[in-house]
Amino acid sequence: MKDAYLIAASTVCIVLMTVSVAIAQRIDEPLAAYWLQFACSQDANQSASGYCQGAIEASYSVMEGWCVPKDVTPAEVKRIVVDELLSASFSPLEPAAEFIWGVIDSTWPCR
Q1: What's the pLDDT score for residue 46?
Q2: Residue 62 domain flag
Q3: Range of 48's domain?
Q4: Residue 49 burial (10 A CB sphere; 0-12, 13-18, 19+)
Q5: Residue 100: how many other CB atoms lie within 10 Å
Q6: Amino acid 42: pLDDT
Q7: Backbone Cα Rg of the chain
Q8: Is residue 9 domain-resident?
Q9: How large is the greatest C-alpha to C-alpha distance in the chain, in angstroms?
Q10: Is 56 helix (H, G, I), strand (E, B) or coil?
Q11: CA-to-CA distance for 99 and 88, rounded, in angstroms?
C-alpha cells in the first residue's frame, strides 16, 4: 500500500512540473498586429476586449527601455496604444509587440 501512495505522489509531482515547464515556453510565432487590431475593435465583446488589454499589457511588460512617466497610468498607456492600433494598417504578419513598443517609444521617448 505504501508503494501505491509513493507512485501516486511521484506521478502528481511529475505532472505538476511538466505543466509549469509547458506554460513557460515561448510561442514560436508572435501575435500579429492585424489580429490584435481585430480584437481591440470588438468593443461589445468583453472577451475580445479583455484579450486586447491583456495582450497590450503583456507586450509592454517585457519592453526594454521603459520611459513612461510614473504619473501615467497603465490604462492611459493602453488607451493610447489602442487608439494608434485602430487607426493603423498592417501586413498580416507584422508583430504586435513591435508596434506596441513603437507607440510607447514615440509617445514617451527616453531622453
Answers
A1: 87
A2: yes
A3: 33-107
A4: middle
A5: 26
A6: 86
A7: 20
A8: no
A9: 67
A10: helix
A11: 10
